[in-house]
Write a structure and sequence with these properties.
2 domains; nine-stranded mixed β-sheet; Rossmann fold; four-stranded mixed β-sheet; elongated; alpha/beta
């Protein structure tokens, strides 16, 4: 593993994902261990403890002094090893050892002897680094070498793919080999990805089918130096390494603690078999027709090295939805052309209802540290038409519905007319309104209903969904009635079928009226609809219960 110079401690921690365990949570872990193994499990001499990512020994500082002679504390850095010797003089065995690269022959003789003693029971206790090797630069520094270890090469050769890029899964891989067929309990601090991410399914099945004992979960916010904008759940779980049991067959319920180490609830983990993920629910049609790619509602973008500039036959919009976890919530949007990079697909008449449901499912739950990596799952039953209608109406007036109407778009030597297929009202209704701009009114003369307008006309909408549509109609009427007072060119509004994003940005800039009440009414109706949809997402198995 590539290491930064020791004097750059903070840089090194960020680079290698090395954050020392806060003492309240280290002490909480020891409480859970004692509840499983008994209060005097180390004093008897039957157990040995090995923390092979000990750092400066935070996990062991609260151990009774009489237990320390049965402890092995190793760390990657020599100066950390010296700190361990100062913290635990003449007690624990402390030494420098690179667990992901060094051979067993480099272990201290006492440790090697204990590992070969069949009468020894083991507690493996550690908070390994969470760094992931990646190609992209992070604040100017790519983590391309952080996980290049001997263990990673072994995992890669075993066909474990990108899982091998995680340092903590490398620890788990070697731990499983070192403690195979031994009586051993693992107490592990780690993110939840190894348990619920779809990319870790093979790792769970082949490398880590261990029996759950107990555990808890807390926010990464308690670690100093973590990003305040991207907190995620960290778990401490006790595993029986000797008893093999598929994780998917177990019920794993973790206690939830706040940043003050106070219990605030429980969370049951949901297993994410990749065949059941929500992103695999939609049929993604083949995209072969050249069309201008979009990076936002009205921005056509060229020059990307990975430009996705193809749409499918019958294209209505593209749905950007990379990933399947709630942490990708902000990477969810409708656009009126293909998105400029990976993670989007063409919405057509055949998958429209699924697309609207997926959009609502990804956007409605409130993303927080506890559900940050929760997986969204396919419905457990056929969805009622009313529920689909509710999801559609809520989604049409979300700011991430960035479908738009654009005139005369030049792309690669050809001129395109970009239609807004998500315009919600029929043309005959618009013709009855006052359209205050003659040029835009003229575009209504040959206009035809959009797909969404026709779809809505065939639905029996709920009271809540109808209220949303009615509140939106009020705003649209004001939009057409105040066209001369709006910055039409700024938002490229030239035709009757302007997109919701174009309208919602232009109206607040009206010269005579900001329409604060009208927007508030629409938000109120959408919030009521959201409150109706959210528990149904749980009932239909799409979202997890108890995390919102």
């Amino acid at each position: 593993m590539k290491a930064l110079p020791r004097q750059n401690v903070t840089d090194r921690q960020r680079y290698e994902g090395e954050f020392f365990t806060p003492l309240p949570f280290a002490e909480k872990a020891l409480e859970y261990i004692e509840a499983q193994l008994g209060k005097n499990y180390l004093q008897t001499g039957q157990y040995r403890l090995w923390d092979m990512a000990a750092g400066t020994g935070n996990l062991e500082r609260s151990l009774p002094a009489g237990t320390l002679p049965h402890c092995y504390l190793s760390t990657l850095y020599q100066d950390d090893a010296l700190t361990l010797q100062e913290q635990f003089p003449d007690a624990a065995q402390t030494f420098r050892y690179d667990y992901l690269n060094d051979d067993p022959a480099l272990m201290p003789p006492l440790l090697a002897a204990d590992l070969h003693n069949p009468k020894r029971h083991w507690l493996v206790l550690l908070n390994p680094p969470y760094a992931t090797a990646q190609n992209a630069a992070v604040k100017g520094k790519a983590k391309t070498g952080v996980a290049e270890t001997k263990i990673r090469r072994q995992m890669h050769a075993a066909g474990l793919g990108e899982v091998s890029r995680e340092l903590y899964t490398q620890f788990l891989y070697r731990i499983q080999n070192d403690f195979q067929n031994r009586t051993a309990v693992l107490g592990l601090f780690a993110p939840l990805k190894y348990l619920i991410s779809r990319n870790y399914q093979r790792f769970r099945e082949q490398i880590f089918p261990c029996r759950f004992l107990s555990g808890f979960i807390f926010s990464s916010a308690v670690f100093s130096g973590t990003s305040a904008a991207n907190h995620f759940p960290v778990s401490f779980i006790l595993w029986n390494l000797q008893q093999r049991q598929p994780l998917e067959s177990q019920t794993i319920v973790l206690d939830v603690y706040n940043e003050s180490a106070e219990k605030i609830g429980t969370k049951q983990l949901r297993w994410a078999n990749r065949s059941q993920l929500l992103n695999g629910w939609i049929k993604r049609p083949r995209a072969a027709i050249l069309f201008p790619p979009f990076s936002s509602a009205i921005t056509v973008k060229e020059g990307n090295t990975d430009t996705r500039n193809r749409i499918a036959e019958g294209f209505l919009a593209s749905l950007m939805c990379p990933g399947n976890e709630l942490q990708n919530q902000q990477k969810t949007a409708f656009l009126s052309g293909p998105q400029v990079s990976a993670g989007a697909f063409s919405v057509t008449a055949e998958n429209f209802e699924q697309a609207m449901t997926v959009f609502a499912a990804r956007k409605i739950p409130q993303n927080n540290w506890l559900n940050h990596v929760d997986q969204l799952m396919q419905p457990n039953q056929e969805l009622p038409k009313e529920f689909i209608g509710d999801c559609t109406l809520w989604s049409l007036f979300d700011n991430k519905n960035q479908t738009a109407a654009l005139k005369d778009v030049l792309y690669r030597g050809k001129v395109y007319q970009v239609r807004n297929h998500f315009f919600p009202f029929p043309v005959d209704k618009i013709r009855q309104w006052h359209v205050a701009d003659a040029a835009i009114a003229a575009t209504l003369q040959t206009a035809e209903n959009t797909f969404v307008a026709d779809w809505l006309a065939e639905q029996s909408l709920s009271v809540e969904a109808s209220a949303v549509l009615s509140a939106a109609e009020t705003l649209y009427r004001h939009f057409y009635g105040h066209l001369p007072e709006l910055p039409l060119s700024k938002y490229k509004i030239e035709t009757w079928d302007a997109g919701w994003r174009q309208i919602s940005l232009a109206l607040p800039e009206c010269q005579t009226h900001r329409f604060i009440k009208e927007f508030a009414d629409l938000h109120r109706c959408r919030d009521a609809l959201k409150r109706k949809i959210l528990p149904q997402l749980v009932r239909f198995g799409i979202a997890a219960d108890g995390t919102y």
